[in-house]
Write a structure and sequence with these properties.
single chain, 464 residues, mainly alpha
Length: 464
């Protein structure tokens, strides 16, 4: 029954959900209207805030593009192809593919949300090797697996709280940092992770479409996609005669080694001196060096990157529009006003759920956990402090940590309702394949409801 309900939702919502760009345009108009109605901003101020926000995510957008393309280029190497072949042997039918993607994708997400590209690569290759996989539903599984990233090493809000002189300390809202032990290392966060791995991969398995002949990756391939030569064949075809100096340079393995040896030297020193301090910059640098090493020659890597870059247009031109929405929320005061309104009648017991709900709602317009916390953090923290005024300092700090994690969990869960971060999956899943956001999002309604339900229970009653 649950599977039939999910399939029905997906079928009907496919008629309603527009492209992520259209979704962004509609959301821009809606947020602008709300800013005019519920803040003191004049139309000119709203437009100015939109323009200011337009450029907030340029660095982040480029980091995402590079993480996706360099990660995909690694996946196009023969060595990774052989590794995925071995993983595919564990897939005993299409159902196990969905389960594997949910499980392995969740593990990738705990390392970094940017490792969504690796989940997408795994999903795509398993779809090519295992018969009977519904490709649109598998894309939904790959996307849904990223919901647990907020519990892991790249979780923005806990990292900000543990940073000296963060904006809450500089503004006087907090007196000191909040240790990771209270956030990522808390019992509550371990429970959140555990519930994901115990339930979500199984949910992906049980919700799978039961069509006898579902539309697989081969059915959705574009006409010219299946005729593509291998990277090695294309590199060979580009040679003049094999003896020209340019051919020797283009295919020089020595030149690759002259780059990757100092590259890996830096990487080793970086992690040795800083610990496992993983961010998008070092991740992209690692991906580039690993990709060069696996493809062996500069020309093969150039061809791999050309193929990997073939489907990232959505990120390049859509990120500024979503950043513009973020600007309206931030610079007109709409996000802060929303948070204050939601927290108006909170109690010690109800405020964690309110914080979760605030994170989920504001995330629809502020597509960045760090950016959202910059908007919500001060009001959420001040409310938590007022509610714990009579408690010992240690308990008050634990409660603030609970509220911060509730915002983070809520922020991530509502990604399942809107197609913005699907742009981190589709550039890989969609290469040479006819697939759109509307084919995917309907399958994520039930996972969203489940994540929201167990998260509400955990943030309200789980011990820290």
């Amino acid at each position: 029954m649950l599977q039939q309900f999910g399939a029905t939702l997906a079928r009907h919502l496919r008629q309603l959900i527009p492209d992520s760009f259209v979704f962004g345009l509609i959301l821009t108009v809606l947020v602008a209207i709300l800013a005019l109605l519920f803040t003191d901003s004049a139309p000119k101020q709203v437009v100015d805030a939109w323009y200011r926000g337009f450029w907030l995510l340029l660095e982040f957008g480029m980091q995402v593009v590079l993480s996706l393309t360099t990660g995909f280029a690694i996946a196009l190497s023969p060595a990774v192809g052989r590794l995925i072949d071995r993983v595919a042997r564990f897939a005993r039918g299409s159902g196990s593919v969905y389960f594997i993607v949910g499980m392995v994708g969740g593990a990738f997400a705990l390392v970094s949300w940017g490792w969504a590209v690796l989940t997408a690569v795994l999903a795509r290759e398993l779809a090519s090797r295992v018969k009977g996989v519904d490709y649109a539903y598998l894309t939904a599984c790959a996307y849904g697996a990223g919901v647990v990233w907020v519990c892991g090493l790249s979780s923005s809000i806990p990292l900000v709280l543990n940073t000296d002189s963060n904006f809450l300390i500089d503004s006087g809202v907090l007196d000191s940092t909040i240790p990771i032990d209270y956030t990522l290392g808390s019992t509550m966060n371990w429970i959140q992770m555990g519930v994901y791995f115990l339930t979500m991969p199984a949910l992906f398995y049980f919700l799978r479409p039961r069509d006898a002949n579902p539309p697989g990756i081969d059915d959705l391939r574009e006409a010219d996609a299946s005729a593509q030569t291998t990277i090695e064949q294309e590199a060979l075809a580009l040679q003049l005669n094999g003896n020209a100096l340019s051919d020797h340079l283009n295919n020089s393995r020595l030149l690759v080694w002259l780059i990757v040896v100092p590259g890996f030297w830096f990487i080793a020193d970086y992690f040795w001196t800083r610990g496992f301090d993983l961010n998008l910059n070092i991740m992209v640098f690692v991906f580039i060096n690993v990709g060069l090493l696996l493809h062996r020659t500069p020309m093969r890597y150039v061809i791999a990157m050309k193929r990997a870059c073939s489907n990232v247009s959505g990120i390049i031109f859509q990120y500024p529009f979503y950043a513009g929405i973020m600007g309206i929320m931030m610079f007109t005061g709409l996000a802060e006003a929303s948070a204050v309104w939601l927290a108006g009648n909170a109690t010690l017991t109800t405020f964690p759920f309110i914080a979760q709900l605030s994170g989920a709602l504001v995330n629809m317009a502020v597509p960045s956990a760090g950016g959202e916390w910059a908007v919500l953090g001060p009001s959420m923290t001040e409310t938590a402090k007022s509610l714990t005024a009579g408690l010992p300092a240690a308990q008050a700090q634990e409660y603030i940590a609970r509220i911060a994690m509730a915002v983070a969990y809520g922020e991530t869960s509502s990604n399942l309702l809107q197609p913005f971060f699907l742009l981190a999956i589709l550039p890989v899943m969609g290469v040479g394949v006819r697939i759109q956001a509307r084919d995917v999002m309907g399958y994520l309604i039930i996972p969203f409801l489940w994540v929201t339900t167990y998260t509400a229970v955990i943030v309200t009653w789980a011990p820290l």
